[in-house]
């Protein structure tokens, strides 16, 4: 033992050393859950704060209405009444803005194809008078897309200019959402090529927060929700549901239910880290033979298959309707113009006049399940 080791420390220093050790142990215990070991690395997992605005399980049982006409005579009010007559409790107004193609910098509102603000305000009021909750989801559409272009591939010549224009559109409708007390405002939809611009998105969301005090969401593509690093800025994870569920095989109900099991497990494992409830912002399958394999491609087949479409909805709701981490769904979509076809021979997404609508109404009529539990990944309890 050295002379230094043989020293007797004053009582105050001993207490300080014990306290420091205690603090270190607590810090280590808190740090341990943030480290996830894998086969060849340790992954840092930052703890997610709870969302600012809570939701209930299954609270939003919605149907999308695309506002694709600036004509005052387009009977949007009639379509709202029809949605209110179903068992849905929510409507999602999808509001289009346009850019010419993927490399364009400018984004514009076409008054021939998008209702003006006064009309949108009246439509929101009409929906609320019919006891419908309201979502607003601005989307960017390509006016003259080139081959294989869609909004997920946007790559403007000048990103600064594009972000300025996109922010103007989002802020414009965020102000409207604030004024009319909209339930959820969706800051973007399927803008895959923009999602790695995390600072840009955080700045935009912060600006929207300063205007709009309701729930905020983003609608991610079903295959691209993981790369987004700014979910913590939002209250809700929005995602579409256009998975290939059959790989070309017959879309029997049993096969579809089995196909959803690994998808659900993967989504919930990820969601436990994000600590945000999910709203499926686009739940839809075209009335086509190929709907379960290519749900995103409404040109894939010209052969209607109402039973396959109904099976897809049945399998989806059996998988997700009792899940405590899901705050709602938006069925894609309702007719939005007098020329839009419906019925068993129509090969589009509209479920009206088809067996799929019976499935939707049955699940939408089920009672709500109480407070949401964003991080629970175990099996849901029965009603």
Instruction: Give the averaged pLDDT, no decimals.
Output: 87
Structural class: alpha/beta
- In the CATH scheme, the class would be Alpha Beta
Radius of gyration: 24 Å
Characterize the largest beta sheet: strand count, sense, and whether it forms a barrel. Answer: 8 strands, parallel, barrel
Beta content: 15-25%
Instruction: Bin the helical content.
Output: 25-40%
CATH architecture: Alpha-Beta Barrel
Strand order of the largest sheet: 3-4-5-6-7-8-9-10
Write down the domain tally. 1
Q: Looking at CATH, which topology would you report?
A: TIM Barrel
Unreliable stretches, pLDDT < 50, 5 or more residues? Answer: 1-47, 371-383
- Tally of DSSP helical segments: 8
Taken from the alpha-carbon principal axes, the silhouette is globular
TL;DR?
This protein is of the alpha/beta class. It is 32% helix and 16% strand.
Walk me through this protein's architecture:
With 383 residues, this protein is α/β, with parallel strands linked by helices. The protein has a single domain, classed as Glycosidases (TIM Barrel, Alpha-Beta Barrel). Helix content is 32%, strand content 16%. It has helices at residues 11-31, 76-84, 117-129, 159-179, 198-209, 253-274, 306-320, 355-364, and strands at 35-37, 42-44, 60-66, 90-99, 133-142, 184-189, 215-220, 236-240, 278-283, 326-331. The strands form 2 sheets. The chain has an 8-stranded parallel beta barrel, surrounded by 5 helices. Strands 1-2 form a two-stranded antiparallel ribbon. β4 (90-99), α3 (117-129) and β5 (133-142) form a beta-alpha-beta unit. α7 (306-320) runs parallel beside α8 (355-364). The model is unreliable at 1-47 and 371-383 (pLDDT under 50).
């Amino acid at each position: 033992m050295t002379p230094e080791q043989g020293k007797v420390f004053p009582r105050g220093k001993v207490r300080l050393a014990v306290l420091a050790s205690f603090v270190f142990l607590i810090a280590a215990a808190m740090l341990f859950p943030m480290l996830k070991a894998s086969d060849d690395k340790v992954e840092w997992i930052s703890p997610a704060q709870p969302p600012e605005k809570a939701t209930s399980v299954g609270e939003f049982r919605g149907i999308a209405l695309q506002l694709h006409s600036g004509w005052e005579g387009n009977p949007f009010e009639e379509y709202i009444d029809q949605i209110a007559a179903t068992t849905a409790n929510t409507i999602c107004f999808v509001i289009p803005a346009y850019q010419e193609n993927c490399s364009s910098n400018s984004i514009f509102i076409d008054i021939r194809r998008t209702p003006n603000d006064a009309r949108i305000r009246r439509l929101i009021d009409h929906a609320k008078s019919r006891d419908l909750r309201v979502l607003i989801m601005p989307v960017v559409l390509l006016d003259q897309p080139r081959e294989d272009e869609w909004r997920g591939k946007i790559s403007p010549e000048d990103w600064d200019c594009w972000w300025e224009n996109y922010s103007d559109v989002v802020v414009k409708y965020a102000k409207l959402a604030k004024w009319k007390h909209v339930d959820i405002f969706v800051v973007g939809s399927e803008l895959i090529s923009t999602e790695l611009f995390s600072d840009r998105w955080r700045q935009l969301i912060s600006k929207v927060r300063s205007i709009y005090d309701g729930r905020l969401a983003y609608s991610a593509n079903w295959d691209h929700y993981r790369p987004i690093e700014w979910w913590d800025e939002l209250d809700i994870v929005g995602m579409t549901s256009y998975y290939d569920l059959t790989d070309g095989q017959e879309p029997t109900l049993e096969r579809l239910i089995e196909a959803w099991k690994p998808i659900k497990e993967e989504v919930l494992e990820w969601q436990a880290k994000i600590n945000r409830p999910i709203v499926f912002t686009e739940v839809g399958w075209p009335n086509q033979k190929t709907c379960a394999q290519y749900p995103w491609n409404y040109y894939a087949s010209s052969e209607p298959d109402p039973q396959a479409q109904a099976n897809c909805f049945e399998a989806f709701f059996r998988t997700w309707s009792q899940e405590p981490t899901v705050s709602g769904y938006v069925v894609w979509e309702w007719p939005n113009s007098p020329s839009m076809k419906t019925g068993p021979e129509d090969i589009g997404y509209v479920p009206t006049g088809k067996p799929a609508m019976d499935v939707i109404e049955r699940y939408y009529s089920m009672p709500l399940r109480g407070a949401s539990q964003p991080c629970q990944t175990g099996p849901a309890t029965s009603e």
